[in-house]
Amino acid sequence: MDRAAILDRATDSAKRSCKRTSRPASTWRQRLLLALATGLALTAGPALAVDGCVVLLCFAAPNWGAIPKCVPPIRRVLRDLALGRPFPICAMSGAGNTAGNQWASVPDNCPPQYTRAPDGINAVTATCDYSGAVSVNIAGSLWARTWWSMGGDTVTEFTPTAKAAMASYNTRFDQDYAVWFSLQPPPVDPSLP
Question: Can you give the residue ranges of every domain in the chain?
């Protein structure tokens, strides 16, 4: 039964109940509001829940931001992660197909191009531009890792296997790495005086 049918049924029921008892209009309105609230509560379902299977598929895509159906659930799960909520699961994904979040930390879990070294004498520790990373495993092996920030920015690091399997993909991670690498000082030859 859809919401419109429930609304019609609740309205009719509230009117019949009030006509039989000769109650004033305010009681009729109260009953109607109660019936509506009950009907909506029973039919609402998990409207705010994020489908873990959709999220898994979208994070594994070559560029989730270019797929309109992926944008709302990915934005929602990133917002949920930023609020400390758990990553959604997909019970139908099959063996070895998983996704999960891991918080970023310097230097162990942050790509070098997104690691910011402390500046000045009073700086405490290095920081990472991203808050966490969602890792997607396909057939038991890492496929992609999407780095995300509290502000909603993301960048996806694809494995060589994923890159070989896709005709095209978002290359921002690779481009950022190439720029960072070009700015690094040349290695020092230990055999030179």
Answer: 3-43, 52-182
